[in-house]
Amino acid sequence: MAIQVGDFLPDVTVYNTAAEALRLPQLAQGKPLVLLFFPAAHTRVCERELCTFRDGLAAYNELGALVYGLSVDTPWTLGAYAKALSLAFPLISDYGKEATRAFGLEISLRGLPGFSQRAAYVVDGTGRIVWAWVAEVPAQEPPYDEVAAAVKALTAAA
Question: What's the whole-model pTM score?
Answer without folding.
Answer: 0.96
